[in-house]
């Protein structure tokens, strides 16, 4: 039963009860409609309170129903909302916790609304590639003004009930409480039982219809997510609310919603939504395996990564001991952390008190013994196996029994690191991405001997610090960096084949990547890849040379850090300016090889880059390094700037078809000896999909 009906005094209480988030699936919609009908037909009932469970009014439509007949099966959400609005008795919505998407649209159909001040109120549909589909774009502007509604709907960010109630002239809430919201709603229901006509949001006119601010916000959004259509559609509908009759606006919203729901971008974003949640599940670990307690964390190394990792835990209110090998390195790290926090204070993202609270949780030290009571130790020392081995040898000596020992290594062998300790079951990788206090992705690298409860604990800790955790097996580069290497190879091959860095970057960025490969290399520093290549050339002289990249680095053109790389940069500037030096470098390369600059279609550039990701992703799946294709999608969206509204490389491959990907890869590789992975061959032959 997903909706409970009861009567107290002369007020009916309709309580939505559809765990885990009170999704408004077909059965729940029917339950609300039936309960409303019952209350309206009853001579013992004068008013109705509509509510959810504690902490969750409703998170909106049941996304898992989209694409099935249940989404629009009668009664649709719009029908239920209209029934509330046209009810002959007052309906009071009692809101606590999440009131999102269709949940807020449902509440907007009520005649009155009471909420707890901390309730999270929002229309996040754009994050699913949608616009609100049950009146939100037409009703919300009528109660909070078009400017705030436009910002909330095209940006998709929730606000607290307190923030919205503080808006001058708001008509969203009739009462705000910090206690029992149902009791407050019952009280109001009695007060308004005889009020006629009943107030309907649809009868209000839109106040403060200035959407200029939202349009500016949207412009920033548009630049950041090229090609992503939902925010602009949402903004247009909100503006329509102020200029057209309600029914017309509602019809326009419905049309837009259905178009988007049936489109590729929403399918991709719904895939990404569920993929992030699926990644939390590890099939071969017994469900409900208890996690170990983590109240104190130690971080080894206060450099860029160590400092960022420490900040991530401090931001979650967790005690951190940070260990360095010298006083100046420790002070340098602490200064960097404080400067980072100070910037957040200047940007209004952190209060001065918040800064001090975080720093108060931090214990800097040079003495490993100070981490002997830590529950989790994360090593973020120099990326060198000898250094890692020596650190883990020390950790094995000083860390308490049951402490989890994690390495932040981005490529090194977790099993080899675990082997220097007497507790390999307590060792695993926790690979953060720089800047660690910002980037969402956390690769949780499971060693051959990592125990299940250690893995479960790392997953739980990852969620607790707001990271998107994905389990990876042990290999060079785990999931993301291994695929990144192939992506960079494809970009280099394009360069050697005659494309320019600007053409490659432009195609990638129009596809939706946050940054093309060469602008990204200039940002990260070309010297990092150069050092890895030189190590590989020394280890294996037969390693194919990346002549252009090597020549660029031999000129000291390491990117933004040296004011020049694949592009030129004005002093202190970040704008990538095509460089005559690089043009000359390309010209001499082609002259030497008897090749020449040539134009590539943007589609081909994108396919060369993305299919390389897909090819390596298929191998990663074949080898069991990733548990599922959607995990690979999560990694590449959360950690590498793959456009979320394309669903990730493996989802994108599914939309293109495995056979198309295989024939493209064959064409791009020509006779360079490339062989497809068995999985890609199989899917291409069977017409199967990765996800
Ligand atoms: N539909 C179906 N399942 C959902 C769901 C939803 N709306 N929201 C969450 N789940 C599942 C989720 O997959 C997970 O499942 C479990 O619930 C717990 O979620 C007509 C069209 C509410 C803030 O976009 O933002 O209304 O993995 O791990 O961290 O205009 O869930 O356990 O099997 O995220 O506490 C608009 C989406 C829908 C809200 C809770 N609403 N959900 O976060 O739990 S479209 C949304 C969230 C719509 C109308 C339109 C979050 C949360 P499992 P969780 P959480």
TrEMBL record:
Keyword Amino-acid biosynthesis annotated: no
UniProt keyword list: Fatty acid metabolism, Isomerase, Lipid degradation, Lipid metabolism, Lyase, Membrane, Multifunctional enzyme, NAD, Oxidoreductase, Peroxisome, Transmembrane, Transmembrane helix
Membrane-spanning segments: 297-323
Subcellular location per the Swiss-Prot or TrEMBL entry: Peroxisome
Signal sequence segment: none
Reactions this protein catalyses: a (3S)-3-hydroxyacyl-CoA + NAD(+) = a 3-oxoacyl-CoA + NADH + H(+)
Domain 3-hydroxyacyl-CoA dehydrogenase NAD binding, chain residue ranges per copy: 296-472
Keyword Zinc-finger carried by entry: no
Sequence ranges assigned to domain 3-hydroxyacyl-CoA dehydrogenase C-terminal in this UniProt record: 477-569, 605-687
Record SUPFAM superfamilies: 6-phosphogluconate dehydrogenase C-terminal domain-like, ClpP/crotonase, NAD(P)-binding Rossmann-fold domains
Gene3D superfamilies (alphabetical): 1.10.1040.50, 2-enoyl-CoA Hydratase, Chain A, domain 1, NAD(P)-binding Rossmann-like Domain
InterPro entries membership: 3-OHacyl-CoA_DH_NAD-bd (IPR006176), 3HC_DH_C (IPR006108), 6-PGluconate_DH-like_C_sf (IPR008927), ClpP/crotonase-like_dom_sf (IPR029045), Enoyl-CoA_hyd/isom_CS (IPR018376), Enoyl-CoA_hydra/iso (IPR001753), NAD(P)-bd_dom_sf (IPR036291)
Pathway it works in: Lipid metabolism; fatty acid beta-oxidation
Similarity field: Belongs to the enoyl-CoA hydratase/isomerase family.
PANTHER family given in the database record: 3-HYDROXYACYL-COA DEHYROGENASE
Protein name per its UniProtKB record: 3-hydroxyacyl-CoA dehydrogenase NAD-binding domain-containing protein
Species annotation: Streptomyces xantholiticus
